[in-house]
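Support request, priority: normal
Reporter: lab tech (M.K.)
Component: structure prediction queue

Hi team, I submitted a job for Glutathione peroxidase from Neocallimastix californiae yesterday, and the status page still shows it as pending. I've pasted the exact input below so you can check whether something in the sequence is tripping the parser. The sequence length should be 184 residues. Please let me know if I need to resubmit or if it's stuck on your end.
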Amino acid sequence: MSIYNIKVIKSNGEEVSLENYKNKILLIVNTATLCGLTPQYEGLEYLYKKYRNNGFEILDFPCNQFGNQAPGSDDEIHRFCKDTYNITFEQFKKIDVNGDNASPLFNYLKNQLEDDEISEEHNTISMKAILSSSVFGSVKKGDIKWNFTKFIVNKEGFVVKRYSPIMKPQELEGKIRELLLLFK
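Reply from support: The job had stalled in the queue. We restarted it manually and it finished. Here are the results:
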């Protein structure tokens, strides 16, 4: 199975095949609107505006599984993100990322890379303990630990990086640039 066989639903209810994103670098993120990490939307929008004309897309999947931090309807979430952070990248229907009702896309992503990467700045014993804690809802290896877990998919559809929620979008810029240059 390839990521391009998976279909997802946009926030407006339209079903879309990920094949539409073939030959693009993708940053796929599970998000929430009432999370302490919600300001990461600013960094996501920065990356999108900077690289969208070079074959880069962000796919935003709101998720309410962690502390009920995305409680609104798809329309309310979309309006909040547009009004507060002026997002212009694709936002999709709210999903589950773990458990029996997990999105096929996130099951695929988790199976490709089970562990989050964190930067040296955040690579402390206490931070590792927090991220591996059941407080973050993770019950089995590979599960998403919290809102704003980020996956980078290359132009061939392979998951090449999985980043911890605490990694700021700007910290991914070097990898995005590298992949865009590699696959020109």
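The chain has a mean pLDDT of 89. The chain has one domain: 3-182. Let us know if anything else looks off. Ticket resolved.
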